[in-house]
Fold this protein.
Amino acid sequence: MSTTSVRTPRTPQVRPAAEAGTARPPQLGIALVGLLAALGLGLIVHARSGTVPAVLFAIGGAFGFVLFHSRFGFTSAWRQLVAVRNGAGLRAHMLMIGVAATLFAPLLAVGVAWRGAEATPSLAPIGLGVTLGALLFGIGMQLGGSCASGTLFAVGSGQSAILLTLGGFVAGSTLGALTFGFWTDLPDLGTVSLAEVQPLGYLGAWLLTIAVVLGIVAATLVLGRRDRVPPVDRAPVARGLARAVRGSWPLWVGALLLAGLNALTLWVSGSAWGITFAFSLWGSKLLDAVGVDIASWGYWQDPVNAAKYQAGFLAEMTSVMDLGIILGALVASSLAGAFVVHRRIPGRLALGAVVGGLMMGYGARIAYGCNIGAYFGGIASFSLHGWLWGAMALVGTAVGLRLRPLLGLSNPRPTDSVC
C-alpha cells in the first residue's frame, strides 16, 4: 500500500523484473546453462578438493536460491529501520539469528562436526578493528547498494552495477589483508564468548541471546507503531507449488532457511557460514599472478590462512560457497524470469558501487567478517563481537544515509511505501 504524496525522483535501482511488477516466463535456456555450470564446477571441485568442499559448494547454491527468492536483505533492512523506523527487516534478522543460535548451541557444545571435524564458534577480539571495520561496512553498504551476501546473489541474478561493488569488495578485502597486521597489533579486550562466561555455559548463553533478540523485536514494534510506518510492499508472487521456483517467498521463510543452512554449514565444515575471506583470497591470487610478493604479508604468513591460500580457491570453504551462491542465484532468477543484464549504469551509481565495495571489503577484513561471518555467525556463535559489529554497522548505516544523496541516491521517507 502506498500513500499519495509529492515524490522526488527515484534512485536508479537495478531490480529484478519480478520485483518491478513485470511477470515474465521462465528463462529456461539461462537456467539450463546455470545448472550445467553448477554441475560441472561441482564435479571439478569434488575431483580436485574432495567431498566436503563439493558439499559446501552445493550448500552455497542453496543459499543463493534462498537469498534470491526471499529477497533477504541486510542493507535494506537497516536502511528502512534508520530512515523510516520500519523494523520488519530487522525482525527477520532476529528470527534468523534466534533459530541459528538454537541450532548452533548443541553443535558447539558437543564440538563435533561431520566426519569427526571440530565444530568451532565464530569468535573475534573486541577492539578497534571490529568497531571501525563494522562502521565502514555500514557506510559502504548504503553507498554500494548491497551487503556481502546481497552482492553475490545480485551478481548471480544479472545486476551489472553490483559487479562494480564486487570488484571494490575484492580490492578492499585485499588491501585489508595487506594492512591486517596494523590492526591486530592494537590493544583489544580479547574474544568474549557468552558460552564461556560462568555460570552461563551454552544453555545460559542461548537464553540470554534469545532474550536480547526478543527485546530487539519488541523495540522495533514499539518504534513502528509510534511512527505508523507503512506496511512492506513485497514482490508479486506465484501461486501454489510454482511459488517454490517462481517466488517471492516471505521473509520469515528466508530467515528459517538461512538459519538452517548456516547450521548445516557448521556441521559439514566445522565453521559457520562466511563470505569475505574468499575476496581476500581472490584478490591476493590475482596479485600473486602478476608478480606481487603477497607471501611476505603477515596475513598470509599466519599458518591457518597460509594453508587455505595453498589449498586454492576451489578448496577454501568461503570461496567454493561464494561461487555456489552466484550460480544458485543465477538459476533462481532465470527460473523466475528475472535474470536481466543491465548495460547502462549511471556514473554516480557506478562511483557509489565501487566506493561502497572498497569500504565494505576493507571494513570486513579488519572487523573479522561481514554481515554474515561477523554479525550472523558471530551472534549465533554467542560471540560478543557479533553484537558490537551489528551496533556499529547500524551507526554506519545512519552515516551512509546522509551520504547517499551526494551520489544521487534517494532514501526512504515515511510517506513512501516500503519496498
